[in-house]
Amino acid sequence: EVYILPDEDAIGEAIADRIQKVFENNANANLGVATGSSPLPTYRALAARVADGKLSFKNAHFFMLDEYVGIDEDHPERYHNVITTEIASKVDVDPANVHGPEGNAPDLEAAVKEYDQLIKDQGGVDLQILGIGSDGHIAFNEPGGSLVSRTHVGVLTKQTREDNARFFDGDLSKVPTHCVTQGLGTIMEARELCLVATGAGKADAVRELIEGGISALWPATIMQMHPNAHVFVDEAAAAKLK
Ligand code: F6R
């Protein structure tokens, strides 16, 4: 399903509506959260609804998509800290129930397997919020990777490191070289996917996502195989759709 909405606030409210419906049916549901700018309007809408008493995450677990490897525990760009700042601290989720792949584990290969297992043990993700990179990546699954991968250690592309250098004093040498990320196979197991894309920079990725064939060159296209996937775009991101 593709929804072309007037602006990011309308998108945030529309996704918050879907999340609210999930939690009305199951107060213990699990929410998949993403970092980046795309989910921020959704997070604002969720915080407002929790403040108004319309929604509660008291019994929820949040599962993050990805994390840098080797980043300081208290670095503001550590994704766990970003999620705390942008959403977890603004709603009533128990901080102990906010989970992410562990980028500083002594044994990363064991840690990524444990993360997939934790998601399974908690009953799976009910609704996953997603952004999309201009190259079609979701989470840190860059073009050319496996379409069925599990949570894994990945190498950040030069492009992604350059894009993110602005968060590290503009100094490329401070940007981590590796990440841990849910794989596309892991993400596809969420029962519902809600992807946000806004702005002209996402128009090519949105065209491939909606109208292209499924290809590892555009990782998000695997979502075409998902039975309950929703894509929310503004006019600029939809501009290249036929
Ligand atoms: C976020 C993530 C990334 C972003 C994507 C879009 O956890 O893994 O895939 O969703 O890079 O970023 P924004 O929303 O900042 O354009």
UniProtKB/TrEMBL annotation:
Q: Which GO terms describe its biological process?
A: carbohydrate metabolic process; glucosamine catabolic process; N-acetylglucosamine catabolic process; N-acetylneuraminate catabolic process
Is Hydrolase one of the keywords?
yes
In the record, what terms sit under GO molecular function?
A: glucosamine-6-phosphate deaminase activity; identical protein binding
EC id: 3.5.99.6
Q: Which GO terms describe its cellular component?
A: cytoplasm
Family matches, as InterPro entries:
Glc/Gal-6P_isomerase, Glucosamine6P_isomerase, Glucosamine6P_isomerase_CS, NagB/RpiA_transferase-like
Please report a single Pfam family linked to this protein. Answer: Glucosamine_iso
Q: Where is the Glucosamine/galactosamine-6-phosphate isomerase domain?
A: 10-225
Organism superkingdom: Bacteria
Q: Which SUPFAM superfamilies match?
A: NagB/RpiA/CoA transferase-like (SSF100950)
Instruction: Please name the top-level EC class of this enzyme.
Output: hydrolase
Record keywords, A-Z: Carbohydrate metabolism, Hydrolase
- Protein name (record): Glucosamine-6-phosphate deaminase
Q: Which organism is it from?
A: Boudabousia liubingyangii
Lineage here is: Bacteria, Bacillati, Actinomycetota, Actinomycetes, Actinomycetales
